[in-house]
Amino acid sequence: MVKIGIVAGEASGDLLGSHLIQALKKKRSDIEFVGIAGPKMMREGAQSLYPMEQLSVRGYLEVIKHLCGLLKLRRNLFKQFLSNPPDLFIGIDAPDFNFWLEKKLKKQGIKTIHYVSPSVWAWRKNRIKKIKQAVTEVLALFPFEPALYQQENIPVTYVGHPLADMLPLEPNMNSARDILKLNASALVVAMLPGSRQSEVKQHADLFVQTAKRIYAQRPNAVFLVPLITRETRQIFEAVMYSEENLLPMQLLFGHAHDAMEAADVVIVASGTATLEAALLKKPMVITYKMSQLSWQLLKRMRLQPYVGLPNILAGKFVVPELLQHDANPEKLAETALAMLSDKDKLAEIKKEFTEIHHRLRQNTAEKAADAILAYLK
Predict the structure, then answer these.
(1) In whole angstroms, what is the distance from residue 251 CA to residue 254 CA?
(2) Angle between helical axes of 230-240 and 197-217 (0-180°, round to 10)
(3) Cα separations (Å) of 87 from 32, 137, 239, 366?
(4) If you write DSSP's letter for every residue of 284-296 in order, what string do you get?
(5) Residue 208 has pLDDT above 80, yes or no
(6) Mean pLDDT score, 58-84
(7) What are the chain's domains?
(8) Under a CB-based contact definition with an 8 Å cutoff, are residues 27 and 53 in contact?
(9) HSE-up (13 A, CA, CB side) for residue 54
């Protein structure tokens, strides 16, 4: 058997990893995967030595709180890989965790592939020299990334983004509403507060208060809140049920795709979900809140005016971003409703997002699998 070490740190990495494992197993039936995996990867046969949720921490202050546990977990995982070395290692995103591990494994003569370029184009550009020490090759999801690595003579392959392969060029809103049993005439607002517990804690009250303000102006509104774990659902429920007047708010277990496809507008915490909303051609308001210390540190290192992937890919503000101090219920509600009443803006958004979809549709899992298998010959 060929053994591949693999580590994913959050829900988006779990999705990427599951598709990659599928593609690799189609080409080679003698591969086993072991490391840290989420539920989708485990369904494809990956063995997870530790729960993926332990890596799902965002923001400097939040990482500091969990630092001892993360460092211990990483050391223990490295020791396990040393005692039973993989033929190759794939780190899926989670750069602060994976680059250390990749550098250590590379020194042991193990080929290391990093799947998903970290945001060196957005902040911390100096990381690229550390990346060179850690990786054998980078698999990049976005078309503007390879040039950055080629300048440093780092092997890189542009593979596109798997969401662009998965999602149709023309979404079907009516079908999604049928699946979720929604009235065709309702104003449907999808609200995605994030996949991590820390994100949902930051955004739950903001989203509930925003929904209250939208509902006050549009009483035909329905709010869909997809959450991926029992813990994040409990966090959001506690905030939602603390309100005296309950809103027409449906908490979904998963179904983020259906919720966004059914929606007239999406309010979304910055992250991979913004890209999914763009590929579904949805108008959206991108928002994010974090601890003040984390915000100040990130703000100093930002290299671009945008944080949302749709705006970064377009190279301009196609959709609004309301971050940190601007992330308040009044602004979010006002911006979402104003966008829906501007037909020219809605047409522009659809055009820009369709162009992005075409650029990212590259048969990603197949391309990534071929790049990886080249090191196993």
Answers:
(1) 9
(2) 40
(3) 10, 15, 47, 20
(4) EEEEE---HHHHH
(5) yes
(6) 77
(7) 2-160+362-373 (3.40.50.2000), 173-360 (3.40.50.2000)
(8) no
(9) 17
